[in-house]
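2024-03-11 09:14:02 INFO worker-7 job=invfold-0412 stage=load source=structure_tokens
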């Protein structure tokens, strides 16, 4: 098993298998800071993970979605798992759109305890955010082993990753 395969297996075990994950999601604000520089924004979201993508049910007019529409580059971190990654955010559209049926069912199952209370599927702005991971670092046992993962090329990065 390659280092990449080993790292992906650990990411899958940590976040996959239908788990409801709390992750931090970082975006870039639509307005710059007072000195004219881009301003990062971070928040915690519930996410479902599968094959290099985190999925989040959200509102299409939320700040995060408006920010992603202007700049789809995002960052995520596993709140308790020492995993940090960069990715591309994509609005998959209304949760009830036919093309979202399969992932919607997975999200409803994963988030079953609170899904209906938190989401109004009749609102066409109730959408699915897909966060396609591009590169990341999984830190096992506080620096015992690092996996620098290139999700695009499906390999490890020799020059380090995301810290």
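2024-03-11 09:14:09 INFO worker-7 stage=emit residues=163
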């Amino acid at each position: 098993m390659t280092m990449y395969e080993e790292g992906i297996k650990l990411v899958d075990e940590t976040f996959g298998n239908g788990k409801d994950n709390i992750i931090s999601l970082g975006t870039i604000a639509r307005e710059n800071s007072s000195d004219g520089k881009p301003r990062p924004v971070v928040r915690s979201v519930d996410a479902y993970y599968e094959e290099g993508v985190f999925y989040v049910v959200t509102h299409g007019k939320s700040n995060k979605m408006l920010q992603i529409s202007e700049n789809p580059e995002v960052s995520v971190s596993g709140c308790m798992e020492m995993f940090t990654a960069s990715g591309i955010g994509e609005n998959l559209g209304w949760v009830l759109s036919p093309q979202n049926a399969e992932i919607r069912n997975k999200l409803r199952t994963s988030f079953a305890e609170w899904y209906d209370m938190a989401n109004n599927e009749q609102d066409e702005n109730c959408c699915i955010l897909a966060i396609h991971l591009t590169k990341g670092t999984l830190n096992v046992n506080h620096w015992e082993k690092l996996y620098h993962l290139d999700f695009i090329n499906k390999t490890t990065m020799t020059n380090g990753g995301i810290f």
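2024-03-11 09:14:09 INFO worker-7 stage=report msg="The chain has four helices and eight strands."
2024-03-11 09:14:10 INFO worker-7 job finished
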